[in-house]
UniProtKB/TrEMBL annotation:
Protein name: DUF6984 domain-containing protein
Entries under InterPro entries matching the protein: DUF6984
Source organism, top-level taxon: Bacteria
Domain DUF6984: 4-104
Length: 106
């Protein structure tokens, strides 16, 4: 999967999801240099955070929210850590399973 930096809407969403979390300061400090890979390159949506750590595993959910996409369909969002407490995945999915069109400003 190709890697890329986070874009501004994704950064805003992550900041929103991490607000008030005990580990927020540590996790937010690394976002400016984070690399992600799109899980579904067909549309805006789920991202996996790139790490040099081998064999990472899905851990705890650290934040969740929802919003309406441009077409009025609800989008559900969950942010997951890996088992070591590092950012693992930003999961976005629409109620009708169509690709997410746009992440709004948070």
């Amino acid at each position: 999967m190709p890697q890329r930096p986070l874009n501004l809407p994704e950064l805003g969403l992550l900041i929103y999801l991490l607000r008030g979390q005990t580990q927020a300061e540590r996790l937010l400090a690394g976002l400016h240099e984070a690399a992600v890979a799109e899980i579904n390159p067909a549309g805006v949506g789920s991202l996996r955070f790139v790490s040099a750590t081998p064999e990472r595993r899905l851990g705890d959910i650290v934040g969740r929210t929802q919003f309406l996409d441009e077409d009025g369909v609800p989008v559900f969002v969950a942010l997951y850590l890996d088992t070591a407490g590092e950012l693992y995945e930003l999961d976005c999915w629409k109620a009708d399973d169509s690709p997410v069109r746009r992440i709004p400003a948070f």
